[in-house]
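Hey team,

Filing this mostly as a record. A colleague (T.K.) asked me to run one chain through the structure pipeline before their review meeting, and I want the input and output archived in the tracker in case anyone asks later how it was produced. No errors, nothing strange. Just documentation.

Input sequence:
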Amino acid sequence: MKKLITIASILILTSLAACSPSEKNATQVNEQNVQNAQNAQAAEAPAAPAPKADPAPAAQRDDAAFAKLLDPSRLNETAPDTFIVEVKTTKGIVKIELHRDWAPKGVDRFYNLVKAGFFSDIAIFRMVKGFVIQFGIHGAPIVSSAWEDARIEDDPVKESNVRGTLTFATGGPNTRTTQLFINLNDNIRLDMMGFAPIGKVIEGMDIIDALNFEYAERPNQGRIHAQGNAYLKAQFPNLDYIESMTIK
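Output structure:
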């Protein structure tokens, strides 16, 4: 999944559901089935030689667990009705409570991603003050590629995108894969656009508010997919990351 949500008043809302033509062309090789718009800043990414992409973001890894991430079909357990996920970020701990009755398909996907260790050294690559923070592109391009077509069907919107809710990003109907956002404001206009919240932050919104917003929407999602954390850490060294997620 590539760029999923771009906001600039009315233009920003409409681009939550589709890529803009110019940005789609810019990432056409990697973004055939993409989700949302590439931002204007991303189009100005430096033309310097691309950093070498690491096969996995961590210096050490569990090879068996990593191999499982390359086969999304193996990650299909049913989530508990409710559960809490502890999110360890570079700024501190955030706790999110998930509710399967809000959006069962979305919660099942998130549960399986967390349980499989997908969210390890994952950049919070998009930071829009007063709107959302976004994450979910894996730091290893081989994993991103494996999940590109692992889409799930939409859930009906039962809860509103109020401040603190966790929601899957989407590039149109039935295109959710691994990218998510946390609402920084009451973005209830997203409800009618089909964005179904799956849970809500119950502890640590102060941590979310304290994340580094300096890069805003500059990181290019096409390059993240292609080059992973090597690109992000070279070009945006002060980004905040999700270090891990744990089901409690």
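Quick notes for T.K.: Residues 1-59 have pLDDT under 50 and may be disordered. The beta strands are 82-89, 92-99, 122-123, 126-128, 132-135, 165-168, 180-183, 197-203, 241-247.
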